[in-house]
Each structure stands twice: as C-alpha cells, then as structure tokens.
C-alpha cells in the first residue's frame, strides 16, 4: 500500500462514526493545530442520487470551477457525471482521470485561442459561444466543433449574478449569431443558459427554457437540427436546501417545450449543488481580544486560523454567509463577538457580529456548507496555509464505489482518522518542542561584518555558502508528517 506525504485516500468510517465525530477526534487529538476540512463523499453520492430521482431527464455535468479537489472529481467520474470545464487546465484535470472527452462541455463562451486548440487536440468538441468573434475564432481553430449558443436569462434572486458577463439576448442577438454561424459552415447543436448561481427564483428556469425553445425554432428555420439543451447551474447545495422547486419547474417546462427525449438531450452544469454541504471546515481560535466596557466585557474578538484570504474568500466573491459553531458546549452567557481571520489585513473578518459563548484560546469553531467556491480560490497569503482536506466515507459508500473506475480499493483506507493519529504520533502536543525541530544542516552565520560591501566577490561567496533555511522548522499539522519517517525520530 502506498503511503504518500499527504494521506489523500478516502477513509472508510466504522459504523459508530459520523463526520462530527471525525472532526472531534482530529481536533482533540492534541496533535492538530491547523484548520482542516472533513469532506464526506457520502454527501456527494446522496446529492447525485437525489438529482437522478428528481430530474431524471437531465444529465449533470459538474462545474469543475466550484471545487476542483481531486477526490470530488474522482468520485463524480465514478458516478458517471459529465463535467463542465472552462479552461485547458480544467480539461486536463478531468481527462487525467480517464474521463471520455465526450463527457466534457467546454462551457466558457469566451475562450483563449490556445485553449480552443487544446480542446480540439484532445477531442473535447462541445463548446459554448455568445458572440460573433468567438465564432470566427472557432472557425479558424476548430471548425468541426459542436457549438452551443448561450443565451441570457437572469433569475430575480441569486447569490451570484452571471448574466452581466455572459449570454446573448435570445431575441435581439441570437438570430444574427446563428446566421453568422451558418454562413461560416459551423455546426450549432443546441442552446445553453445559466440563470445565476445560488438561484432563489425557480420560475426563472421556466422562462429560460421557454426562451431556449424559441432559439431552437430559429435554428430550425435556418436549417439546423438542434438536439442539445443545457440548463446550466444555479441549484442550491447547502444543508437543508432543496432542489424540489427547481426540479418541478424544470420538469414542467421540459414536458411543455421539449417533450421528446429522443429528439433533445438535456444536460445541466450544477456546481455548488454537489459539493456545498459535503465539506465541513474546522478552525482553531489562536488568539482573542476582550473589549471592555467598564467592568464588563462588551465584546470578544476571536482570531481563527482561516480567513477571507483562505477558505472564506467565499464571503467576498461568492457573497456567502457563514455560521460559527463552537465544537464544544460552553456554559454561561452569550457575549457579542466577532470572528477574524489570521492575516494582518483589517478586511480579514469572517463574522461581523454573533452572540457566542465565552471560549478559550485553543477551542475549535466549525463551519458547515464550506464546499462551494472556497478551496480553489484560497491563497496562503501572509503565510497562513490553506487547510488540508480529510476525506471520509461510510462503509456502504465504500462498497458502492471501490470498484467503479477511476476508483479502486487502493483509494480507500480503513479508519476514521489520519494515519499518524492512529499510530499515536504526537505532534506539538505534550512533548518538548526540541523533539520536533527538523535538524538544521550546519550553515555559516551571515553577519553584517562578514560582508565586505566593497568587494563583490566576498558578497557572492557569502551568498553561495549560505544554505537556505528549511521552510518550516516545526511540524505541527498531522498531514505534514510522513508516517513512514516515524522511525527516524
Ligand atoms: C459557475 C458555473 C456553473 C456552476 O454554477 P452553480 O451555480 O455553482 O451551479 C455552471 N455553468 C457555468 C457556465 C458556470 O460558469
């Protein structure tokens, strides 16, 4: 069995264990200090099942940009979804799993030329457009592509609007674009739209499908035979949310406008739906500041080890709202509090105001629904690492997935917690810090007087003789410990 530097295998949970128990076990191992995620593969599988039940006619093509964690893509590939890719990087990521290029839609209406060439070379031939210049580009780079015209139809209530950037007007622009495509001899096969991400206006799907039907008819009048309808993304994915309303609207509209499944294949591009609730983030309070008001504590500021430059970039970019949940119950009264990220920027605030119990430094604060538009955008700004992901699945999920390509038994490991926790490796807990210092290789001490600033050669020699410091002197986070090296210590 291969043990890698990071244990990226999916941990198969025993019957008594759920995600919260895993969070608790890792957080309270005495070994863990960094923020970490627990990703429950079972949650993704359940979402897929629900989709299949509620919109049986619509083939999901997961929008990779939402969360491109390898395990997410591997599981969705095993479940047989398609993929919505926006760039050559995303196309590569999906194809590397062995996914058939025909299962990918290149759903970016404005593509750099090199990315179109790349798609052509790899057989990813279905792609969207919403403007004339894109048609000319495709004509010269990939004339055999199967094109999907993206129209604009905005939902009235959305978490993130997209219509201002993409989608042509179905009435005033689409007819002309289709004529241009026809005159260039390009193969247009269908229509797509995206009502906006985090759609809170289910009837928007009805309006959009009706508009798409109109564009299908324009295509027919030009001699095209459209057979693909792409109803985009927008489906909610947080715990407790439901796609029931949207599914009802979509199914009704499909029955009305595209009743024959033999004639029109319907796909969608769900992103947040699949991943939002699968990821739980555990953060650690590393510092706190009490703001007094006379004798009283008026307000407590908690500083945690992930913030808006990391996972919580979603507060800025995805207009997300998050709820802090203390891992442990604390007695006593609730105090007006705020939660801040670890960087030195005043913008780095995670929760502006909340009533929270009084918590000590070292306590963990948990955030649910952290799977969508968090990790792929996070940066290690100011030297704070992006949290690692611990992937889990219960046994029934393991049985289901272990023989489905591209997963095999080797992708799984029995046990709830990371390998080094199980072998009792204690990192930064009770032991002396000396035990965990990485031995430094001997190096010359570079003092100011060593540098003869007039002499280039001495300076050069000093620089050449100076071996670099290791990037990290102490190892705190479990995932940075290689169990294989255990015996060295
Ligand atoms: C971002 C995006 C999606 C995914 O949207 P969700 O709201 O997360 O479902 C789908 N399609 C396209 C073209 C996108 O840009």
TrEMBL record:
Which residues does the UniProt record annotate as the domain Orn/DAP/Arg decarboxylase 2 C-terminal? 36-371
Q: Name one GO biological process term.
A: putrescine biosynthetic process from arginine, via ornithine
Record's keyword terms, sorted: Lyase, Polyamine biosynthesis, Pyridoxal phosphate
Q: Which Pfam families does the annotation name? A: Orn_Arg_deC_N, Orn_DAP_Arg_deC
The cofactors it requires, by name, are:
pyridoxal 5'-phosphate
Query: Known CDD domains for this protein?
Result: PLPDE_III_ODC
**Catalytic residues?**
344 (proton donor)
Recorded hits in InterPro entries, A to Z, give: Ala_racemase/Decarboxylase_C, De-COase2_C, De-COase2_N, De-COase2_pyr-phos_BS, Orn/DAP/Arg_de-COase, Orn_de-COase, PLP-binding_barrel
GO MF, one annotated term? ornithine decarboxylase activity
Q: Which reaction does it catalyse?
A: L-ornithine + H(+) = putrescine + CO2
Q: Which residues form the signal peptide?
A: none
Major enzyme class = lyase
Q: What does this protein do?
A: Catalyzes the first and rate-limiting step of polyamine biosynthesis that converts ornithine into putrescine, which is the precursor for the polyamines, spermidine and spermine. Polyamines are essential for cell proliferation and are implicated in cellular processes, ranging from DNA replication to apoptosis.
Complex formation? Homodimer. Only the dimer is catalytically active, as the active sites are constructed of residues from both monomers.
Task: Spell out the protein name for this chain.
Answer: ornithine decarboxylase
Q: Tell me what organism the protein belongs to.
A: Cryptotermes secundus
């Amino acid at each position: 069995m291969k043990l890698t530097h990071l244990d990226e295998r999916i941990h198969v949970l025993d019957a008594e264990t759920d995600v919260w128990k895993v969070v608790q076990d890792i957080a309270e191992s005495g070994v863990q200090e960094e923020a970490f995620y627990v990703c429950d593969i079972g949650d993704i599988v359940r979402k897929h099942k629900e989709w299949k039940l509620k919109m049986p006619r619509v083939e999901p093509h997961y929008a990779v940009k939402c969360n491109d964690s390898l395990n997410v893509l591997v599981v969705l590939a095993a479940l047989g979804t398609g993929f919505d890719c926006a760039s050559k990087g995303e196309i590569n990521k999906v194809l590397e799993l062995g996914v058939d290029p025909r299962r990918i839609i290149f759903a970016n209406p404005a593509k750099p030329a090199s990315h179109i060439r790349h798609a052509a070379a790899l057989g990813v031939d279905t792609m969207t457009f919403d403007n004339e210049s894109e048609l000319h580009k495709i004509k010269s780079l990939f004339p055999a592509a199967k094109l999907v015209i993206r129209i604009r139809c905005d939902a009235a209530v959305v978490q993130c609007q997209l219509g201002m950037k993409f989608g042509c007007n179905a009435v005033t622009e689409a007819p002309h674009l289709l004529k241009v495509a026809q005159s260039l001899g390009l193969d247009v096969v269908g229509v797509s739209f995206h009502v906006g991400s985090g759609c809170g206006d289910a009837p928007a799907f009805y309006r959009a499908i009706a508009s798409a039907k109109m564009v299908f008819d324009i295509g027919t009048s030009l001699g095209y035979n459209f057979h693909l309808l792409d109803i985009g993304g927008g489906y909610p994915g947080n715990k407790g949310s439901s796609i029931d309303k949207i599914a009802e609207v979509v199914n009704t509209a499909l029955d009305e406008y595209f009743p024959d499944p033999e004639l029109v294949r319907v796909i969608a591009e769900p992103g947040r739906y699949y991943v939002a609730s699968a990821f739980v983030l555990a953060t650690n309070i590393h510092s706190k500041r009490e703001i007094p008001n006379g004798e009283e504590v008026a307000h407590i500021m908690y500083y945690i080890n992930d913030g808006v430059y990391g996972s919580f970039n979603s507060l800025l970019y995805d207009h997300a709202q998050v709820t802090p949940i203390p891992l442990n119950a604390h007695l006593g009264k609730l105090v007006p509090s705020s939660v801040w990220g670890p960087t030195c920027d005043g913008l780095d605030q995670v929760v502006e105001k909340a009533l929270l119990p009084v918590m000590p430094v070292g306590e963990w604060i948990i955030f649910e629904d952290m799977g969508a538009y968090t990790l792929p955008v996070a940066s290690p700004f100011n030297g704070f690492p992006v949290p690692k992901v611990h992937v889990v699945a219960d046994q029934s999920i393991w049985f289901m997935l272990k023989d489905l390509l591209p997963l095999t038994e080797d992708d799984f490991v029995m046990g709830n917690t990371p390998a080094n926790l199980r072998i009792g490796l204690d990192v930064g807990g009770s032991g002396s810090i000396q035990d965990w210092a990485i031995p430094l290789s001997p190096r010359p001490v570079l003092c100011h007087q060593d540098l003869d600033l007039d002499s280039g050669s001495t300076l050069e020699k000093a620089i050449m003789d100076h071996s670099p410091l290791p990037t990290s002197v102490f190892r705190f986070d479990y995932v940075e410990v290689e169990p294989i090296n255990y015996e060295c210590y």
